[in-house]
Amino acid sequence: MANPNLDYKQIISITACWFLAQIGYYAQYQLLGPLMKQFGLTELEITVMMSQEITVFAVTYFLLAGPMSRISRVKVALVGILVLFLANAVSGFTESFEVLRGARLFAGLAGGMLSAAGTASAASSANPQRMFAIVTVCWGVLSAVQPIWMPYFTVPFGASGGYYLMAALALLLSPFCRWLVPPKPSELAPQSVDLESLSLLDRITERLGVRGAPHARFALIAMLGLFLYEVGQGAVMVFLEQFGLNTGMEAYRVGQVIGFGNIAALSGGAVAAWMGIRYGYLWPIVLGIAANGLFAGVLALVDEPISFAMSNFFWTASYNFLVPYMLGVMSEMDEKGRWAVAADAAWWFGSAPGAAVGGAAVAVGGYAMLSLVPIGTGLVCIVLMLITIRKFNLTRAQNVTVSLGH
Fold this sequence. Notes:
Blueprint: H1 8-39, H2 43-63, H3 73-93, H4 97-123, H5 128-149, H6 151-157, H7 159-173, H8 200-208, H9 216-237, H10 240-245, H11 251-264, H12 267-275, H13 282-299, H14 305-333, H15 338-405
Helix pairs in contact: 1-2, 1-4, 1-5, 1-7, 2-4, 2-15, 3-4, 3-7, 4-15, 5-11, 5-12, 5-14, 6-7, 9-13, 9-15, 11-14, 12-14, 13-14, 13-15, 14-15
């Protein structure tokens, strides 16, 4: 009998969902320059549009956090792929910035649907931490190809070439989303709730499907930390290609450096998969956030190709190491995976203003100002995680002691 923890069909489906969900976000740094040139707009104007797309992504993702424990993840994913294809096709065709802005909102909607379906499936697997770690590596392989290919579409054809590429990939990967992990039997248990008897907050959380989820206090603080952390990451991400161009490399070479560096950086996810939880969740998370925030800041200041390549490698490797631990600890807080999906949504809520924050920082103080953003947000996140995870571990240990006592 095959090991359910390593079911290759589940891994393929979750990886496909993650890749398609995030393809628009990770294309933004290679579309920033072409869009500025095509529409004659400033960095801040383009990054605000990009922030709006990710805001819709995050809102959709969060609203689906609860319902994903009760509805078909395959159907949600397939509808999301259709919307994603149409949004990217329109984005490539239009010559109107306002039409483009509207199309990107629909792309954000599709991304949120796909990400929620994939993350909920991973959280429902037999071993969430290992599944998240393996999918992070597999997703990273696909994502690493994106910056290598993208300049071959954006340099000769502008931003339209990049959008058409993403539309084609949506069609190509759509058949692989049919093996998503269904909700566990415990997730499907029917509940009868009188909404009129609940407070406004309880009504909202009930609609979202997270009312009554255990360890809410710890989960919400962790989500706040993730939000702040990702603001800094998103601020740097949108300028990644510009950092490379500033070292004197051309767009093709920048894409190759990012892509092959990302492939090497998959070692971060591989290390997480190998380590598992033998050292717990806390210190791997602290180490991952510290390294990631530091190298994000360094990236904004590099002026040589080798410095850019090394900083990008360590930045990405630490991120790949961090993700499975963050989502894994959220899964520990709720076996139904509701906090895992909601926390990943909070991650994206931070990414949403990140691009605009980055654009504003550059407008005010250049890349030197931008470099301080991820370092500061990373430090705040570390403090919140130290407090939250320690208290969660203590509470869980006390609960086990009480149970054994009875």
